[in-house]
Prior knowledge:
By secondary structure, the protein is an all-alpha fold. The protein is 79% helix and 0% strand. Helix 3 (31-47) crosses helix 10, helix 5 packs parallel to helix 11 and helix 11 (222-249) packs antiparallel against helix 12. It is elongated and about 90 Å long. The two termini are 35 Å apart. The model has no long low-confidence stretch (mean pLDDT 89).
Amino acid sequence: MLLIVGWVIVIVVVLGAYVIQGGHLAAVVNPLKMIMIFGAGVGAFIASANAGVIKSVLRTLPKALKGAKYTKAIYTELLCLLYDLLNKVRRDGLMSIEADVDDPVNSAFFSRYPSLLAEHHLIDFICDYLRLMLSGSMEAHELETLMDQEIETHHQEAEVPLSLLTKMADSMPAFGIVAAVMGVVITMSSLHLPPQELGPLIGGALVGAFVGILFGYAIIGPIPVAIEHKVTDETKALEAVKATLLASLNGAPPAVAVEHGRKMLFSANRPSFQELDEAVRESR
């Protein structure tokens, strides 16, 4: 939503200032130039990608328009879920959560937090490492290494579509120059016309550079940045799970283990000690 607000501000400020200075919108709102520049950018994007990457970009793009998914409330629910599971382990033993881990959708613990169940990658991450803890076949440092590898792979996978979108944004000014040069070529072939007719042709050529720069830095450029913030929020959730489970594996009681996880979160969305304590009490 903030992305759309930002786009509206940019367009209103730029075009509004232009009109106030006596400009005419018809001179700069040129659909043909926009199609030419954006189409060239899309073509270059397709040429530099493969089918899997293109699908990944199409799946990722809607994230830019949605609000923040990982809020303080979601992080609080995550820590409460981890506390519930670890508290049962402390009380009844590690094997007591085997059924919950194998079928989280029908688990009494996971079903308390439907918002978390919708985050399939996060739930899979939790269940996979709880299964490894159940097997007892890995030491804490081995589990930590495996978690780090998965988190790094997740981050790298998310970076692929963002990198391509960034390159596409960076290419827009160049394609704007291409459109401007083509306009200059048309103008040069019309030098026999009087000045009052040459003026609009020169202005139309310059519109190409304007559209390319505006598209690149104000329209397409913010998209991968907005998505990157959401990827970072998801990564922090994985890191909180990692810290909590490792602390538990090293002998920390549930309350202390979730405190390790809480400390991994950014302060803007981190529940306070009191807020988490109250949430844990309410979830019992």
